Amino acid sequence: MLLQPLTAAEAALAGGALGLGGSAEWFTRIRSDMVGVVLPRRSVRWTLLSPTPIEQQVVGATAR
Length: 64
Prior knowledge:
The chain has a three-stranded antiparallel β-sheet with strand order 1-2-3, with no helix packed on it. The chain is α+β, with helices and mostly antiparallel strands. It is 28% helix and 22% strand.
């Protein structure tokens, strides 16, 4: 599952549903061009998005 930057309420809800515990709070602090990849063992890996110019033109900015 991929999660984008979240509000505090969204992070609490997602954290409870996915069993992330305190690490869910990090979703309120990540940059707008980052996502968290939630793995089956209730761990999170972070990635920075870097769209190509054509992707930016077609899809738009990597912001919420």
